[in-house]
Design goal:
Layout lengths: L9 H18 L9 H24 L27 H17 L7 H25 L1 H9 L5
């Protein structure tokens, strides 16, 4: 299973999941719902804010934003949005997918949300965490105890 670790860039995974959501909503079009546009916009906007401020904080601390190379991390970022979640960019992507699912109005399409979380946790976040523990030891472990992985 480690062969899949850090192999698919997170934004590519978002596109794959969104396409899967669209396909599932098309196949199971009889099982749909309608939601107010406000919820779609809010989900997308909040996701964008999480992702944006995650990147801003990394840039401010002058560490890498490249999720494919966690070994290039120069320091632990525990300020700003990173006080709320250890993975604001991934949380933002999850909220984008929620907005996509709400827009499509597909109950079956929403099944991609836990699949995205499970895949990201197993094949992106856990390998990143192993690398950060190796690089920063107890400092990172203390951060893990203070701040949740997703929210």
């Amino acid at each position: 299973m480690r062969d899949l670790e850090l192999k698919i860039p997170p934004l590519v995974l978002v596109v794959i999941c969104a396409l899967d959501m669209w396909l599932l909503s098309w196949i199971f079009s009889f099982w749909s719902f309608t939601v107010a546009n406000l919820w779609i916009v809010l989900s997308f906007a909040i996701g964008t804010l999480f992702a944006f401020f995650g990147v801003v904080e990394f840039k401010r601390k002058q560490t890498t934003v490249n999720p494919m190379h966690p070994e290039e991390t120069s320091q632990i970022v525990a300020t700003g949005v990173y006080r709320l979640t250890r993975n604001p960019m991934y949380l933002g992507m999850l909220l984008w997918l929620l907005a996509c699912g709400l827009y499509l109005g597909s109950w079956v399409g929403l099944l991609m949300l836990p699949i995205f979380v499970a895949y990201m946790t197993q094949f992106q976040i856990k390998p990143e965490e192993r690398q950060l523990k190796f690089l920063f030891g107890d400092e990172y472990r203390r951060y893990q105890q203070r701040v949740r992985r997703w929210l």
